[in-house]
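Aggregate trends can hide what the representation actually does to any particular protein. The sequence in question and its structure tokens are set out directly beneath this paragraph.
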Amino acid sequence: MRYIFLLGLISLTSFANAQTFNENIRLNQIGFYPQAEKIAVVQGSDIISDFYVLSTNQSDTFFVGKLTAPIQSLYSTIKTSKADFSSLTRPGSYIISIPTLGYSHTFRIDKNILSEVSKGTMKAFYYMRSSMSLEPAYSGKWHRSLGHPDTSVLIHPSASSSSRPSGTILHSPGGWYDAGDYNKYIVNSGITMATLLSAYEDYSAYFKNIQVNIPESSNALPDILDEVVYNLRWMMTMQDPSDGGVYHKCTNAKFDDMVMPGMTKEPRYLVQKSTAASLDFTAVMAQAARIFKNFNKQLPGLSDSCLKYAERSWTWSLAHPHIIYDQDKINQTFQPAISTGSYRDGNTSDEFFWASCELYSTTKDVKYLKQLDNIEKVKMVLPTWNNVAMLGVYSILKIKDELPEAYSEKKRIMKATVITLADKYVNHAHKSIFATAMGSEKSDFVWGSNSNAANQGILLLYAFHYTREKKYFDAANTNADYLLGRNATGYSFVTGFGAKTPMHPHHRPSIADGIVEPVPGLLVGGPNPFMQDKCIYKSTEVENAYTDDDCSYASNEIAINWNAPAVYLFNAIQAFMKEQRIDDKTETLITTKRKS
């Protein structure tokens, strides 16, 4: 509903100025693109009334609309009403006001609204770097000394071989800390690297000009690829050159205390090789090989090396298809016992599928397509670290006419799977209490639920590219709104971005550095009704089981595989919006007084 009147200024009533902030008016705290859908929801109220979009000083009214009738969640007692002000396109800063309730967080309408949070989530990977000091020039007040050089890492007895017996000292520097802890895991690096590499592969022209102030920003490589290379070179150290197998992780025997990286002194180990780690490694190296082929001048030989690494780990995996990293079993035999993140994956069919898709996409060698013969047996669901089949689907669907005719039906099945999932998310967004694709199933709310929201957004963007149907893009955008404040908790889940953001993430540097604000750009895990950490939660309802407490690793930890899809989602939306013609016509002010 749009009201357009002659430009003018009329002071609002004293009632308007007496209103107070009400955090139950939930919206994207960063803001909206001029031509995008703009929705806020009011949580916990049964009122049906007018709402107003005002200037931040509450003196001018730019939009009047009516709240929808309240609807209730399928999973909880939460009710919401919707405020749709999509037709307001005038750039500027605003609040939403509801006379009987109060007003919202300030938000902006701007043609580059996600630019800073897009860069922030990407810059977060620099803050996660291991084996280097973070200098003030690049990290500001979050600078820190070098931690975990990993230049003297021990072969754990579980990884002992004739060429590398237990206790052998190796170099394994670099890479990113995985999450709130200081260990480095190949399995979780797999999906993280794939997501960042795909972001660049899908939006290369956009990323060419995106700089986030990292030490490599002045070189001839896009910053997102500089960051990827930092972790890629660590991953290379995790392959045993004698046979091609890949160690599962580089880790302490137990988690470090809540101290800064430079304070840790515990020995580090490379543990048992695993099929899942080797296949994740294969897929990443294969994808990296085709991307860095375009950067031979900047990185001579890297592409060729990546492909050799991929082929060796693929060969090892074919010879060792069922080596599962079972930490409990390992600890019954070998010492010291390992109690850090397990990333145990007992089913590697999805890893075989993904690795084969990446190898074929890079080499076009038909021998890698054999894994597609049994595609009906592959569980193609939203990507997670322990089910990566959909990553292979994305890569195969990028190949237009380069699959043999015999596999055209397999490709049709893959595309249909993506569209079916996307349609489910679109349909849910229309009836959701938060008007988001997120929450189409109760199972969306698990450990790392925010990564589900981001990954759903990515899938919807792929559906948009396949079909060019705007409904998929709009639904993807709703999940950006979800992550940035339009959710049951009222938090923008990215540290440092939004009016209400997590201040106490389960992240060792943010806890130990003595700085009030946590490291910025980190996406926390989000609502998780299983609450495995046993912390105190204000609410145990499905959509609201979140606490901003550093004890809460089940809802408030950070992780590289959660940040990566946020990087993709925010940057992809920003990239697409920059390509569109922006209508610069501005709204005139509404000169009528609001009802009191």
User: Anything to note?
Assistant: The two ends are 20 Å apart (CA to CA). The chain has a mean pLDDT of 94.
